[in-house]
Amino acid sequence: MEISKGYITDLKSYLPDYLLTYHSINSRNFFRCLNPEHEDKNPSMHYSDKYKICKCFSCNVRYDIFDLIRLDYGIDNFHDQVVKVAELFGKKKPQFNYPEKDYVIVDYNSYYIFCFNHRFESDYLQSRGIDMDLQEEYNIGYDPKNDKIVFPINDNCFFARGTKDDSKIKSKGKSYLWNEKILDDVDSNDLIYVTEGIIDSLSLLAIDKNIKTISLNSLSNIKRLFELCEEKNLNCNFVLAFDNDSAGLSYQKKAEEKFIELGINSFPITLISNFKRSKDLNEALLEDKELLKRNLDFFDTQLKIFIEKTNQKDEGDYEL
Ligand SMILES: [Zn+2]
What is the CATH number of the domain that holds 292? Predict the structure, then answer.
């Protein structure tokens, strides 16, 4: 991310102007949530000047100006979002010195090695219940220059998040799913846990390192999963363990319908319905690890029994 932090911070501060000019929203008051998945009857969204984001107190989404550009203009990649904001507010266009198009392949491996070598300089993941062994297993590193935890997705694409400011960045490169390589070798007995965020998947692995899990990074990436199902002709089973909020639930429902169409078993479940405070798997891990483990064991066992029975039945049908 060769553009300066100051430049991005400056663009982020245009959020109130953006809301006013392009949404006729006065950011001093609560307003209707901008999440298209959330039908917000009472205005639940509020602008935070401290973080330069707007946050929904009902479905919990947080948007900065670039997220809104993605939603409003369908622009997925960060570079083009930055250019768009610069354009809208007459700012000088940024100078990126990495290749600008997603189809130009960038090899990030030396960057991963650099970040991995600095992994002990941040205890951010440990503070979220993810230990160093897991971090090492998944080659997760720390970029001290940008104060970001760096999660490689593959050689040419990574996801990074700030340790203090909650900022999230996806590198150049196509939006792949985190850990999607496990789908290369699955069969009809396998149960794959699909989560929204990498830290959610890591939270499951923190409980049971044999669990098979992939993470979407962003709910809209579910389309990549459908593509893979068709491309690889997958016949495994998916557990849809999205966040327990309206966006998560609405995507679970849509995904379930699509999986039926594809002839693939999917199970929309929540592993955290009996938690008091947690809205996602990582919060649950921190709130009560034992309870989360019991929930996971319970569902995992039940679902595997179900799958085994279904597969036996299918074989039986075949013999007839
Ligand atoms: Zn909302």
Answer: 3.40.1360.10
Could you tell me if residue 147 is inside a domain?
A: yes
Q: How are beta strands 237-240 and 191-195 bridged, if at all?
A: parallel
Q: Name the domain boundary from 36, 58, 88.
A: 88
User: Containing domain of residue 74, as a range?
Assistant: 5-88
CA distance 281 to 284: 5
**pLDDT value for 315:** 67
Helix (H, G, I), strand (E, B) or coil at 159: strand
Ligand 1 geometric centre to CA of 309 (Å) = 40
With tokens 């459908």, the residue in question is 226
Calculate how far, in angstroms, residue 196's C-alpha sits from the geometric centre of ligand 1: 16
Which is nearest to 240 in space by CA: 176, 283, 303?
303
For β-strands 168-170 and 157-162, DSSP reports them as antiparallel
Closest CA relative to residue 15, chosen from 44, 43, 49, 60: 49
Cβ atoms of 228 and 182 within 8 Å: the answer is: no
Determine the distance separating the centroid of ligand 1 and the alpha carbon of 59, expressed in angstroms: 4
Count of CB atoms situated within 10 Å of the CB of 53: 21
At 99 the pLDDT is 45
Statement to judge: residues 187 and 314 lie in one domain? yes
C-alpha 229 – ligand 1 centre gap (Å): 30
pTM (predicted TM-score)? 0.68
Look at the chain and report how many structural domains it folds into.
3
In a domain, 175, yes or no: no
C-alpha 250 to ligand 1 mean position (Å): 12
Beta bridge partners of 240: 194, 268
**Is the pLDDT at 304 greater than 90, yes or no?**
yes
